Amino acid sequence: MRKRKLLFLAVGFIYIFVSLLLSGQQPRAVNTDEQRLLQVMHSISSHKLFDYVKELASEKYAGRLTGTEEYNEAARWVSSFFEKWGIAPDGDNNTYFQAFPIAYTLVFKGCEAYLHIPYMNSTIKKYYCYEDEFIPGGTSASGEVTADVVYVGYGITAPELGYDDYKGVDVKGKIVLMEREVPVSADKDPEIFKKWRPYSFHQYKLENAFAHGAKGMLYNYGPIGNPNNSYREGFIYSHVGPVVVSDIFAGTGKDHSQVVGKIKKTLKPQSFPTGKVFTIKNNTEHHPEGIGYNVIGVLEGSDPELKDEVIILGGHLDHLGRCYEIMPGANDNASAVAVIMGVAEALAKSPVKLRRSVMFLCFGSEEQGVVGSKFYLENPVFPLEKTAAFINMDGVGCGDKLGALAAKNYTEFWKFIKKANDSYVHREISPRYFANIARPRLDAARFMWKGIPSISFSAYGAPSYYHVTKDNINFITPEILEDLAQIVFLAVTDMANQDSLDFRNNK
User: Which of 47, 306, 325, 368 sits at a 20 to 30 Å CA gap from 186?
Assistant: First the structure.
């Protein structure tokens, strides 16, 4: 892709040069702003961006869970480059760091999940494989629970909807097996979904199980790692997948997929005691005193008036930490931070001065409930009404194609991205619409709720792994990082130097 782009550019320059000669016109001077801008664009190197990903995904930062010293070290590493490139700090007390409170939980080895199978006059213990069949809950309490398993559907108690998964079943002192999300779709019927939305949050489901007296939870979620949940002392839970769910349903006379299908079709609970006994054992350490940080750097604009407006380029720096093995988070989201750093260096060194200000914002605690971006929006460095645009990136390192979420929401904003790509890079990008009515799963969702025009990039078209140990550098595509960084560099330069930039009136 890089060689092809260089060839296109070389052929283009030759064509223009020859055409001008034949027409009797003088060719443009070599040192034009456009040519120097393209030189800076091509200084963005896939090799350098890959090295950034490799560093952030290394064992040194232990998965970058916000609140931990390893995350803080990663934040300091990123900010050291901002300082080197002359990007000004815009966090607390003239630092690069914006602090906010965040509780976090460490997960250690020694976690187990197993089913008790009666056999003649004894019991066989079927142990499940870490990661393939279970992953400890990212905010589980430490300890062990052995109890009967009760299936409770989606774990919802909603009197106003005439729905209660706990009606008619006793879960006190027991383990609940629960589905994630809700039994209605945001895509099929948004208005009905909005009524169910409060019950889709992981925190609600755990708190509701705890309130009903359950001692543990098997969450049918992946199994993947996830630190986005509540913590309750003594409440033990793990994420499980199809193997565990199938084993618990075996011999009950019920088929899991049919039961879930019936709940969705009738919106009536199908809860029942499974007759199975299960053990969940987790080894954790909770830290309610945790402090997280957003990393904020700014290139101030050169125009006396327009410098008060800002374009934000952002993505989350954090990942899952250890659960209990290190979750490297190479694609999610070291890839985005690498692109932010590539664009930051290029803009800092560009001969074309920016009239508007540009902010580079690496969020903490996206994985813990999209908390870092929420805190920034409640404590913005620039007034929100002066925030012209937000380019978010999340999982941009695996694949040969790009998705641009909410590009169809903000078509004038999208034109700048499309222009940069069509003119120089030629990467396949799919603009998409984003209704943004489900629980927030990315930082751009919170910005859009505040009325800030936002486009969020992701990559696809190659194998990738989400919230597991395989999200490592072996699956990173360096070329997609380079192409996205070059597109964003050109688009941001273009937007920053417009006389007027108002995407709010174009949705």
Answer: 368
